[in-house]
Description:
Elements: H1 15-23, H2 28-47, E1 56-60, H3 62-65, E2 77-81, H4 87-101, E3 116-118, H5 119-124, H6 133-144, E4 147-149, H7 153-168, H8 184-207, H9 213-240, H10 244-253, H11 257-267, H12 271-279, H13 286-304, H14 315-321, H15 331-352, H16 357-367
Parallel strand pairs: 2-3
Antiparallel strand pairs: 1-2, 1-4
Amino acid sequence: MGEQTPSSRESKENPIDTLARLxxxxxxxxxxxxxxxxxxxxxxxTALSGLEPTDTSVVVFGSLxxxxxxxxxxxxxxxxxxxxxxxxxxxxxxEIQRRLADITxxxxxxxxxxxxxxSHQILHWIGGEDDSNANTTRRxxxxxxxxxxxxxxxxxxxxxxxxxxYIREDRGLWNTERSRRVPHFLLNDISRYWRIxxxxxxYKQRTRANKGYALRSIKLDFSRKLTFVSxxxxxxxxxxxxxxxxxxxxxxGQNPQSLIEHLxxxxxxxxxxxxxxxxxxxxxxxxxxxxxxxxYDKFLALMADEQPGRSxxxxxxxxxxxxxxxxxxxxxxxxxxxxxxxxxxxxxxxxLRPGTELYDLTIEFGVF
Length: 368
């Protein structure tokens, strides 16, 4: 995939800024979202101050956690409980709902977010009959795109324990004869999450009588797909970034804690940061990387645009209310579709072009 560039070495510079500097990119809408998102999280944290019972964390997901939020972004949240269940947990969740209702748009109607979530289900139901779509989604998004508001202790414990299950129970991962070390158990659950999200789009299309389909379909192929990609990269990083000597030490000591810490460091980055962190290392893909981030910046521009169009609505409102029978003739949707195709084409070039490390890992671990 090319030699690593000197500027890809460890740096305090945000990897998105590094990629922009190396490729000549100017992603102003992404920059605005990255500045706005932490400010918005601070506002919500202030509004919810003092509401966390013992052994709980208030956690946000979605664009707010990915540093992609705009003033119209929803707030997907949950109260993560990692301790003995007490009546005060429900009281706190209801009060969180009440306070947030005054200052932000809440989660969707499916009930995946906006309520209590107990660590028992998240941790112990992995892959079982009770591991519902909602439970899988919550677990994956806790790993891939969550941020705590206030006390992070319960959030930290749940993530560490979930990763411990994925790592300790992956027998093949510790096979010393393997030339490539990728956590199969974790990667397969990340892939399952992506398929759930894709199929869920069809389910919502039917149960909601196509309402909101245009906006959901565009967001699926940008933010949802990006989150999935960041999960793949975290798994691939176990092979790409950990040298054989470290692997041997971990295997002989049967102590996966350093691997858990490695994955936590990867998951601590937003999905866009994780992608940029990988791409800055390979000068040969800079042109494709720039096209990919250019298209994502256009997507964020569309979501943040407050100027009413011919319909009298902002682009986001327009897509949310657009009837499916008008998709093929609607200028806003056709523009969004074009940008979506640019993003998808760039991703395919990065992961499915033969002769690169990402291609080899995707074919070996991401397909079969």
